[in-house]
Design goal:
CATH architecture: 3-Layer(aba) Sandwich
Mean pLDDT: 91
Helix content: 40-55%
Radius of gyration: 15 Å
CATH topology: Rossmann fold
């Protein structure tokens, strides 16, 4: 089994938002893209710049992110992943979502795993992930 988390899952946890999806226990490898490091830090910094978070809140979020990241396995964005992300998708997805989906697909292919659990809180991405054959968690199935 492969578990892939996107940035929405990480951010919901580090920002203390409601109803974060449960992450697997320590016995399971959890993957994400190197892209998630950038996405999460850009979001946290945007909260600082727009005055939606204080300096202390930003520091707390960055610390929580670092702790969370220590339990993740990061996948580099390679030329093959970029190429796959540029190919047609089964439904509408943005650029960053396409990169996450392509990364999860590459993991599935590279590790010969039949089941990929894709964790996201993004409805649009969840729809595309389901259409690609992933077991999606974090978004209610009927909400997509």
């Amino acid at each position: 089994m492969i578990v892939y988390v996107d940035s929405t899952v990480l951010l919901r946890r580090v920002l203390g938002e409601d109803d974060p999806v449960d992450l697997p226990n320590d016995d399971v490898l959890v993957f994400t893209s190197e892209l998630a490091r950038v996405e999460c830090r850009r979001t946290i910094d945007r909260l600082r710049v727009t005055g939606q978070a204080t300096g202390d809140e930003v520091a707390t979020a960055l610390h929580a992110l670092a702790v969370l990241e220590s339990g993740l396995t990061f996948v580099m964005v390679t030329g093959d992943i970029l190429s796959a992300a540029s190919e047609p998708m089964p439904s509408v997805v943005g650029t960053l979502d396409a990169l996450h989906l392509a990364t999860a697909s590459a993991l599935s292919d590279g590790l010969d795993e039949d089941v990929v659990i894709f964790l996201t809180h993004d409805r649009q991405q969840a729809r595309a992930a389901r259409e690609l054959g992933f077991d999606v968690r974090g978004v209610a199935h009927d909400a997509t």
